[in-house]
Amino acid sequence: MSFAETKWVWLNGKFVPWSDANFHVSAHGLHYGSGVFEGVRCYETADGPAVFRLDDHLQRLYASAEVYGLEIPFTREELAEATCELIERNHFSSCYVRPICFYGSQSLGLHPRNCPIEVAILAWPWAPYLGAEGLQNGVRVTVSPWKKFHSQMMPTTAKACGQYLNSILAVRDAVKRGFDEALLLNAEGQVAEGSGENLFIVSGGKIVTNDDRHSILLGITRDCVIRIARDLGYLVEARAIRLHDLLTADEAFVTGTAAEVTPIREVDNSRIGDGMPGAITAQIQKLFFDAVAGRALRYQHWLTPIGRASEVAV
Ligand code: PPE
Asked: What is the mean pLDDT of the chain?
């Protein structure tokens, strides 16, 4: 990961140099995690860079913000435009984009009262989240001793800053024990999701993933994979995934904006299938990468091209 290549940050309506994108240590969001964010990827296509499912990510950002009473003082169109201009100004052909909105500095105490609402968008080049090797050969995951917080404790469908402490506990423990990623069970003991990804299994040619009844974030990549798999003619079912279902599955993979479509080859040292990425996983992964790169006509509506016109004119 390299922030070094980022020159500009979008901050409350203005483009500022990286070194000027600062907030005060008394910000409410820093003390209590009272903010919401998104993770979006921009990919290189034959027609220049394009942002993948930008509208859907922004829609989820506003939905998450509403849960915590954050009234974003910009429209979705403004944030969409800001995102595209930010990528252009930084001259990125592909990157990860992180819009964030949080309670700023005014007072402390849990109720955010009159704290200002701060909005920023960062972008930086981000390599495959679970490694290029993991993307190709699959990752080794562990079932975390930490449970995923229940959706009655905090809405798991909201992507909020403080909610990620649960994921941080799980992934730190997993990496310390030599694994690539953690899978968290929910309060019912079913498999919920990864620290930063959704889970899919393939059994007898059928694809299974869980949904918001099982304390997960409803991932946008998850939605892409469901559509892609159905378009390929597979049956996709949304239901609870028990640990036994995962351990006896023919194939398994995780999905996320950062992790993209990453095969799982082992769960707690027990192989999934033959310990190699499965054929159906590979087929879905290939079509996903075709879609993000604009090579699949059917999914071109998922892409927002970045205007190259101004650059050509210069
Ligand atoms: N579950 C969780 C808990 C999660 O954080 C993510 C995204 C997903 C599922 C998949 O959602 P989607 O990106 O819409 O397909 N995790 C983001 C943050 C990763 C990070 O380390 O930061 C991401 O993938 O961008």
From this structure: 96
